[in-house]
Amino acid sequence: xxxxxxxxxxxxxxxxxxxxxxxxxxxxxxxxxxxxxxxxxxxxxxxxxxxxxxxxxxxxxxxxxxxxxxxxxxxxxxxxxxxxxxxxxxxxxxxxxxxxxxxxxxxxxxxxxxxxxxxxxxxxxxxxxxxxxxxxxxxxxxxxxxxxxxxxxxxxxxxxxxxxxxxxxxxxxxxxxxxxxxxxxxxxxxxxxxxxxxxxxxxxxxxxxxxxxxxxxxxxxxxxxxxxxxxxxxxxxxxxxxxxxxxxxxxxxxxxxxxxxxxxxxxxxxxxxxxxxxxxxxxxxxxxxxxxxxxxxxxxxxxxxxxxxxxxxxxxxxxxxxxxxxxxxxxxxxxxxxxxxxxxxxxxxxxxxxxxxxxxxxxxxxxxxxxx
Length: 372
What we know:
The chain is of the alpha/beta class. The protein has 18 helices and 12 strands. The strands form 2 sheets. A 9-stranded mixed sheet has the order 1-2-6-5-4-3-7-8-9, sandwiched between helices. A 3-stranded antiparallel sheet has the order 10-12-11.
């Protein structure tokens, strides 16, 4: 029997099929193996599968053999997860577009994957000021010493400083790359790369030997946001990629923090914009920051995904159950629930109201919802 992971890989080989469509396929058919054997008419029932996409599926699917493809891919890429694997990072799996294949190198810590160990993303400009460097080092050190894993992108500047400071403090760090996990970019970070392999992980959605490409880096920012409970933006001009990460974090229901700077400092303009939009201030009292980050709920154990309390839940209609399934243990924004379920906004709004009246969820300020 062909493993489900082989079908996740096979679907990625069909042009025009990305993470969002794969998520919809899985939700519609239950498994990607079932979707693989679906007829053209059945596939046409999935939102986003237009005529051209259906034609590509029909033409290309017949030439692919999932099991053979999976075996060959493992030979070239020995370490990767698919959403079908139990070790696939749980928090990333909550997002609307989890990478169908997540490659990794380094030392895996299962508690991180299960969402039981707190992970915080630190991002910012490639050309930080002394002020940005100083606070990045201080905060990364404090996080590492208090048991947080620091996640960043191994770019120059803030990313590099956060990785180095976390490791110097004896903590773990994860680098999310815009290349294959065997390609070092920038090349000047080759020593840093080697250190990360012994004190954490490098991960990427791109297979081995994938060179850097300008389109890869904005996309990898969603993985930084998806892996973590909170994003700290240390210094960022208005056009910084760090703001893309913050946008993803907001969409995913993560907390966003920003380091304030002077009004006339170019590297601080992006942070000031985030603060004006509701991001939380990073203030001098780091104990307060650690307290707030520590208050972010973690996943207590594997059994929490089974949700024993749901055994006593009333029988729900398919629409209500779909919305209920979007919830884990944290508050979610309305927009994120719409993305997660693939339902129309009006249908989601009605379902949320019914679930609230049933006492299953509660509404929070800012159009956010959580399990009751």
